[in-house]
């Protein structure tokens, strides 16, 4: 998956960017969490995201 432009607040976008998640970043979905979130990977980094963040951040299938 490739992350599109998020519909999040400036602080959230900045913090996720610090973690390596930006528009255009290719990610792999690894696991579902109990709260309907997901664990995603980009490179060697693994990050758990809650459902609200996922809903506000569209992604497209990588080609």
UniProtKB/TrEMBL annotation:
Residues 10-53 form the Ferrous iron transporter FeoA-like domain. Keywords: Iron. InterPro entries: Fe-transptr_FeoA-like (IPR007167), FeoA_core_dom (IPR038157), Transcriptional_repressor_C (IPR008988). GO terms for molecular function: transition metal ion binding. This is Ferrous iron transporter FeoA-like domain-containing protein. It comes from Intrasporangium calvum (strain ATCC 23552 / DSM 43043 / JCM 3097 / NBRC 12989 / NCIMB 10167 / NRRL B-3866 / 7 KIP).
């Amino acid at each position: 998956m490739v992350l599109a432009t998020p519909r999040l607040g400036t602080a959230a976008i900045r913090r996720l960017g610090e973690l390596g998640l930006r528009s255009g970043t290719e990610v792999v979905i690894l696991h579902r969490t109990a709260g309907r979130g997901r664990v995603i990977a980009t490179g060697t980094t693994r990050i758990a995201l809650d459902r609200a963040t996922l809903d506000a951040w569209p992604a497209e299938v990588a080609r």
